[in-house]
Amino acid sequence: MSDWKIIVADGLDEIGLEILSKAAQVDERAGISPEELIEVISEFEALIVRGRTRVNAEVFSAASNLKVVGRAGVGVDNIDLAAANLNNVTVVNSPYATTQAVAEHVLALLFSLARSIPAADGTMKSGLWRKKQFMGVEIKDKVLGIIGMGNIGSSLAQMSKSLGMQVIGYDPLISAADIERRGANPVNIQELYVQSDFISIHVPLNPETRGMINGGSFGTMKRGVRLICTARGGIVDETALLAALESGQVAGAALDVFAKEPPGMSALVSHPKVVATPHISAQTAEAQARAAVDIAREVLAALQGDPLRSKIV
Length: 313
Prior knowledge:
Layout: E1 5-8, H1 14-21, E2 25-28, H2 34-40, E3 46-49, H3 57-62, E4 68-71, H4 81-86, E5 90-93, H5 99-115, H6 117-125, E6 143-147, H7 151-162, E7 166-170, H8 176-181, E8 185-186, H9 189-195, E9 198-201, H10 215-220, E10 225-229, H11 238-247, E11 250-255, E12 274-276, H12 285-304
Parallel strand pairs: 1-2, 1-3, 3-4, 4-5, 6-7, 6-9, 7-8, 9-10, 10-11, 11-12
């Protein structure tokens, strides 16, 4: 075992901890506060987080020995990448581990919207029989528009096509030919809005994507569209979405992420046309085990100076 010290701030599946413990000293601090992290971070060469811990400039400034930050998952919007770069700290993630889980959760939300499954279940549990209230729609031959054709968007495209959906995709960072190879008919964003019966969002949260789905976007969409977001809160303008739901422009929305988490019993969460889940799209036993293995190996590779598969900075 080396003298490396690794702090795990948000919990990690046991299989990942086992890998780390064979090569380094591991300190599990699940739930550590921002103040406590700043106080102790100078003792560690590596920090592993999930989505809860904010690794900001103040953390990096205090981390005199830090060499690598590992994000056990895909999104790195909770890590200040500019500060990491300024302090010569490598940032890695596990971009493939949760692909299947998130794509499957999108499909679960899509079916929930199409058939009002959560609401129907709620009435049954209240002792009611409201059969006529829940007229659904079939997804076969419906158009699914995917915004963001990365790993998750591509996996979703393949699954949705197997269910008989027509899949179109938009991604400004991927060529039309590559989008087609990934399972979707490439379109521009306006075409996607106009044509889609369902829209699923799979882009990272950054200055370019914050609020990209806004009042103007909803006004362009096909009336009665159903929206799904499992990416990041803040991409969808929640005030504009609420107005679109009230007007009927949007027939329903399924949200796993929110601008503020937890959002509390907001008007959006409690809206009868909204299916809400608490940021659980990646929460499967299999996905969390894969993420733990991937990030453990990548963090150790960074410490050892070995080639990296998922270096962000």
